[in-house]
Amino acid sequence: MDMRNEATHIARQESARAAGAPQGSAEFLTFRLGGEEYGIDILRVQEIRSYEEPTRIANAPSFIKGVVNLRGVIVPVVDLRIKLGCEKVEYNGFTVVIVLNVRGRVVGAVVDSVSDVLELAGDLIKPAPEMNTSVDTSFITGIASVGERMLILMDIEALMSGADMGLMEGTQALQ
Predict the structure, then answer these.
(1) Where do the DSSP E strands lie in the chain?
(2) How many angstroms separate the CA atoms of 140 and 155, rounded?
(3) Per-residue pLDDT tens for 74-99?
């Protein structure tokens, strides 16, 4: 486990402990992107909203769908299906936006559907496999098996803070 993943793991344990969860467990919101199921730290989730077409921003990367006005706050909307290279991106009645609080910023993430909230004990979470590819997988914190389900656990803060996103301080602005 590298230093960044270890720091994320420690922060997640401290957050779970502060929220009253048993030692070594954490709660994850699970959602679908294509045929895969993902989990993110529930403490990052502000709300879940039905998908509405955002206002497009000129010259933004294709995965940044635009912005929406959420009770007076202008929120950038990122389509995680496009960002993570899903083959098929289809908007339907199940498509939702997970509104996240990441580093003090509000960001929307479009996903195919939301499944549920799971509390996972630390022993159910296995490290993500090391892959020698040019694809950035640093945001994947682990893999959890729950019954027949295989969850890919991600550090949504790390994903949304990437330089290609241009959404957080310390990253490049949209050009």
Answers:
(1) 25-33, 36-41, 45-50, 64-70, 73-79, 96-102, 105-111, 113-121, 125-126, 140-146, 149-154
(2) 6
(3) 999 999 999 888 888 889 999 999 99
Domain ranges of the chain: 3-160
The residue length of the chain stands at 175
The whole-angstrom separation of Cα 120 and Cα 26 is 5
- Read off the tokens for 164: 């290609």
Strand partners, 108: 77, 99
Residue 15, judged by CB atoms within 10 A of its CB (0-12, 13-18, 19+), counts as middle
| Top-level class of domain 3-160 | mainly beta
pTM, two decimals, is: 0.77
Helix (H, G, I), strand (E, B) or coil at 3: helix
Letter for the amino acid at 20? G
Q: How far apart are the first and last CA of the chain?
A: 34
